[in-house]
Amino acid sequence: MIGAMAAATFRFYAELNGLLPRQWRQRDILHSFRAPASVKDRIEAHGVPHTDVELIQVNGEPVDFGYGVRDGDRVSVYPFMAVVENPRPLRPPYPRGRFVLDQHLGRLAAYLRLLGLDCVHRTDFPDEEVAQVSVDEHRVLLSRDKRLLMRRAVVHGAFVRATDPMEQVPEVLHRFGSPETIAPFSRCMTCNGVLRSADREQVEDRLLPDTRAYYREFRECPDCRRVFWEGSHGLRRLRAALPPRITSARADGGERLPSRLAPAPCPYLTGTFAFSSSNQFWIRLMRVISAAGRRLVLVSRKRWPSRSRS
Ligand SMILES: [Zn+2]
Question: In angstroms, what is the span from residue 184 Cα to ligand 1's centroid?
Fold first, then answer.
């Protein structure tokens, strides 16, 4: 049986407008469809993946994705950043610090790993498999492919808006960052392995002569066998690059964060390991970490208490 034609008014708010075709941005959209139809399908018909929607209201009342849109409904759709608290969550809480990235986001995966986040990524990664890993392993799917995010099975995900990997990092942390998952330099950038301490004797065969002479402490990746060593000036630089209010917030509680939000010791100041001798890389990396820190404090204050309950 073919359903009757119906029409509803849709309005997308805040940054969801960036996902809409230009003619639908920042305005009411009269949308015709064949009833019955779920609000999730009708939202995606506008080009907005369900993963990027945080709150849906129909005629002022919150609904979930399964709601059947009726003739004459007024549907308001909000992204994460515009929602303080959703009385009717659209999905279970986000998996913390666990991601899977589509094959085009390799640099982003490397930078997130550098911050200690658990990121599955391969350069030969079919969409089908990316989606499956996100479901099977409870990982947030990050992609710049809206079709991939619209797959039915995908529960947690986000469309990555920025194209520069250094801008993508704060964008991801702003929505999914949680202070306790950030542990810079604890994970292998190349293969996602968790680094472990190693004695000089264990790694000697893999060191350059200079490194052998100047460094005593090492970490190695148990999976790909790469060796990392502590940069003697890395910690100083990292401290200098951090915004003062973050270091003092951690040190003296000046930010008045709830105590469970302030990890001790400050995760940004521990485990400083040099991954590269290129100054340019270091400077950019410090900027990312400092930006990440700023965002995380902001996110904690606004979002953390209400989301960690369940
Ligand atoms: Zn590795």
Answer: 15
> How many Å apart are CA 228 and CA 188, to the nearest integer?
9
Q: What's the pLDDT score for residue 272?
A: 32
In the predicted model, what is the mean pLDDT of residues 280-287?
52
Ligand 1: centre distance to CA 55 (Å): 39
Write the burial class of residue 20 (CB in 10 Å: 0-12 exposed, 13-18 middle, 19+ buried).
middle
CA angle 243, 249, 251 (to 5 degrees): 105
| Cβ-based neighbours of 302, under 8 Å, separated by 6 or more | 84
- Rg, the chain, Cα only: 22
> What separation in Å is there between the alpha carbon of 26 and the centre of ligand 1?
46
Higher pLDDT pick, 279 / 184? 184
Which of 221-245 are b and which e, b meaning 16 or more Cβ less than 10 Å from the residue's Cβ?
beeeebbbbbbeebeebbeebbeee
- Mean pLDDT in residue range 130-144: 97
Maximum Cα–Cα distance across the chain: 79
Q: Say how many Å lie between the CA of residue 290 and the centre of ligand 1.
A: 25
Q: Could you say which DSSP state residue 194 is in?
A: B
The model's pTM is 0.76
CA of 99 to the centre of ligand 1 (A): 17
Q: Mean per-residue pLDDT for 177-193?
A: 79
pLDDT at 34 over 50: yes
Instruction: Return left, alpha or beta for 82; rule: phi > 0 is left, psi -120 to 50 is alpha, else beta.
Output: alpha
What is the Å distance from ligand 1's center to 210 Cα?
22
Interval 28-32 mean pLDDT: 97
Average pLDDT, the chain: 76
Contact between residue 146 and residue 44 where contact means Cβ atoms under 8 Å apart:
no
CA of 227 to the centre of ligand 1 (A): 9
CATH 3.40.50.10730 fits 5-82, yes or no: no
